[in-house]
Amino acid sequence: MSITKSLPAKAAEKTPEFTGQDRHKHQLSPVSKYVIRPAIWIILAALVVAVLYPLIWMILSSFKTSRQIFGDPFALPTQFNFDAYRSAIDQGVIGFFGNSLIVTVTSIVLVVLISSFAAYALCRLHIPFSGPLLMFILGGLMLAPTVALVPLFNLMAAIGLYDTRTALVILYVAFRIPFTTFLIRSYMVDLPNDIEEAATIDGAGAWRAFWQIIMPLCKPIIAAAAVLQVIFAWNEYAFALVFIDSPSKLTLPVGLDQMEGKLTTDWPALFAALVIAALPVIITFVIGQKQFVRGLTAGSNK
């Protein structure tokens, strides 16, 4: 009994001494506290201002008249005038928005599905020649889209897909599959096999395991891939300029470019159109930012 009672007493005597030493070790030095930390906060604040100020200025300018924009570009609008938004709508922004929405959503679904299938087959099914197939798919990362414009133009014209939204969807999917496959595979490759093996024992096939086990576990990286595809497809300009000719099928980047006239430009309407074009990307990132960060950080650690 004396031994059991003496041990807690000695431990209790040593505990305050340990916590005091530990607290002393984690104290910040004066240089870190008064120089490095304030400098980091100043740099971060400057970055926030550099990112947000152009957006805020663009939004405020969309409520001004052309005279106010050129007279005092940094002043607040005297009144919130929505005429610029009505003018932007009259110039076809809603049609551009709809075309971009169709192409972007369709390409997101196809890119995520095809890349998920490919990643699952390459790292979970142990198919023959998976290594060479992976190298072949990743080889697409070395192909620059601008280099392939001429042969792709001839191909789309030959098969009757020139001046169609389908052509843009095919191109957006084809050029994003290599990167998205690499991204999703880097996340899938180290997922635990225990749950999948248990499902196989219970009679689940590869198809059921993919949809009910692997895809739910890959939600963060799928969200990250979807956000990256939104940014790419929504802002893509070269393909949309070359492969679309009809004004009714133009996407937002090309449509906004045509709103800028050679002699005169309705700048308030252009700023209003830019606000309309930027909102979907901003909202998408705000909604999916947690999954986006989780997916990229987890994928980079695999």
From TrEMBL:
Record membrane topology: Multi-pass membrane protein
Entry keywords, A to Z: Cell membrane, Membrane, Transmembrane, Transmembrane helix, Transport
Domain spans labelled ABC transmembrane type-1: 97-288
Pfam families assigned: BPD_transp_1 (PF00528)
Presence of keyword Transmembrane helix: yes
Basic and acidic residues composition bias: residue spans: 11-22
GO process terms (BP): transmembrane transport
Domain of life: Bacteria
Family annotation (SUPFAM superfamilies): MetI-like
InterPro entries named among the record's database cross-references: MetI-like (IPR000515), MetI-like_sf (IPR035906)
UniProt-annotated stretches for the region Disordered: 1-24
Annotated localization: Cell membrane
GO cellular component terms attached to this protein's record: plasma membrane
Transmembrane segments: 39-60, 101-122, 134-161, 167-184, 267-287
Similarity comment text for this entry: Belongs to the binding-protein-dependent transport system permease family.
Name of the protein in question: Raffinose/stachyose/melibiose transport system permease protein
Organism: Spelaeicoccus albus
Lineage of source species: Bacteria, Bacillati, Actinomycetota, Actinomycetes, Micrococcales
